[in-house]
Amino acid sequence: MKITEYAKHLLLAPNLEDKLLPPPKQWIDDSDQKSIRIETPGRNHKLQFSDKKIKIPRLEHLNLESNRGLTLHHFANHELMAIELFAWAILAFPDAQKSVRNGWVKTIEEEQTHFKMYLNRMSEFGIQFGDIPLNYIFWKQLDQFQSVESFSAVMSLSFEGANLDYSQVYAKVFSYFGDEKTSEIMIYIFEDEIKHVKRGVRAFEKSIPSEKNSWEHYLSLIQFPFTPRRAKGYLFFPETRYLAGLDANFVKQLAEYEDEYTGRVNLESVKKFGLGSELMRKKQA
Fold it and tell me: Which among 174, 209, 217, 228 could disulfide-bond with 183, CB atoms 3.0 to 4.6 Å apart, if both were Cys?
């Protein structure tokens, strides 16, 4: 199968089971194709995007199973958008280096696994995917994706970078409430997100001009109103960025970055838990 055929299938198929079809074990990298920029993914009525804002439950309310299910629904929605957008990148950037395209395919496969993990666990909490409106925050960034580097800056260094923090926060809070099963899911996903961000860092670093450092280059690739606040969570765990291969100056600048939205969401909830800076990692066999 040609990799572009697979990417089109993921993007245009309306049903969830089609979007979860894993990549073929052997595929043809037809990178001689013209760039195709698909504006919206195919989705059935239950998977349609909505402008209705549904807030994620506050951390202190995750003692309730129903709120854990709603929280995982938010995360699953992010995974589905990521599956679609890495497929989108395969079509939009046929001239990307083969190693980058290979990384996108592998990321799709891992995001599909994450989605299934969320789906199974939230169903145990009585929540089915599509039970609440689905936002499209990732898809709103299409105009940002003008190059492989800008795609990597937004999707990998920012959205997936922020998930390095969020997965740690939620792993700790689920564990705090005695839900080790869901906490372990978050830790599993955290370990994969390190790989995802690292893949983006590799694609991004290759394009840094000699007159700029990595932070300056990152800022040049994102467009307002998208800002670096999207690249970190309620709490910032610097060590996670080092694990993903970012340099010390970039990590320092991101840690210090603030704008008018900094600290407005869930920060007081985070403080109540005294989560600490030590990372929760997958237990080694």
Answer: 174
